[in-house]
C-alpha cells in the first residue's frame, strides 16, 4: 500500500505541473463591453520596415473607458499575414478580437 501511495505522489507532481503550464502565458480573458468604441484615430503609418508588419493603433478598454494604444511593429512570421485586433459588435455588446497571424 505504501508503494502505491508513493507511486501516486510521484506521478501527481509532474501531472499537476503539466496542467498548470499548458495554458498560454499570453491568454487574456475575453473583453465584452456594452459601450461602442470611439471612432478610429487616423494614425500615419511609418515607412516600410523589412521583416516587420505594422499593427495599427486601436482602442483598449481600461475598465471605465477606452484608451488609445498607438500602432507598433510586429516581427513578421514567414508564410503568414498580420490580422490586426479589432472590436466586433454582436447584438448590444462589443467584443475585442485580438490581433493574430493568419496563414
Radius of gyration: 21 Å
Q: What's the overall average pLDDT, rounded? A: 82
Alpha carbon gap, first and last residue:
53 Å
Task: Estimate the global geometry from the Cα principal axes.
Answer: flat
β-strand percent reads 25-35%
Class inferred from helices and paired strands: alpha+beta
For the sheet with most strands, the description reads:
3 strands, antiparallel
List the strand order in the largest sheet. 1-8-7
Give helix % range. 10-25%
Counted beta strands: 9
Pfam family, one: WXXGXW
Signal peptide: 1-27
Protein name: YXWGXW repeat-containing protein
InterPro entries: YXWGXW_rpt (IPR024447)
Keywords, please?
single chain, 103 residues, alpha+beta, 3-stranded antiparallel β-sheet, two-stranded antiparallel sheet, 9 strands, 19% helix
What does this 3D model show about the protein?
The chain has a three-stranded antiparallel β-sheet, with no helix packed on it. It has a two-stranded antiparallel sheet with strand order 2-5. A two-stranded antiparallel sheet has the order 3-4. It starts with a helix and ends with a strand. The protein contains one helix and nine strands, in the order H-E-E-E-E-E-E-E-E-E. The chain is an alpha+beta fold and 103 residues long. It has a domain at 30-38 and 49-103. A hairpin with a 2-residue loop joins strand 7 (86-90) and strand 8 (93-97). This is YXWGXW repeat-containing protein. Keywords: Signal. Residues 1-27 form the signal peptide. It holds the Pfam family WXXGXW.
Amino acid at each position: 500500500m505504501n508503494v502505491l501511495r508513493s507511486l501516486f505522489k510521484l506521478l501527481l507532481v509532474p501531472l499537476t505541473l503539466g496542467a498548470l503550464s499548458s495554458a498560454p502565458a499570453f491568454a487574456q480573458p475575453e473583453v465584452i463591453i456594452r459601450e461602442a468604441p470611439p471612432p478610429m484615430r487616423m494614425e500615419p503609418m511609418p515607412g516600410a520596415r523589412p521583416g516587420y508588419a505594422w499593427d495599427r493603433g486601436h482602442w483598449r478598454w481600461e475598465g471605465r473607458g477606452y484608451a488609445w494604444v498607438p500602432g507598433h511593429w510586429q516581427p513578421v512570421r514567414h508564410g503568414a499575414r498580420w490580422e490586426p485586433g479589432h472590436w466586433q459588435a454582436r447584438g448590444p455588446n462589443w467584443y475585442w478580437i485580438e490581433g493574430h497571424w493568419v496563414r
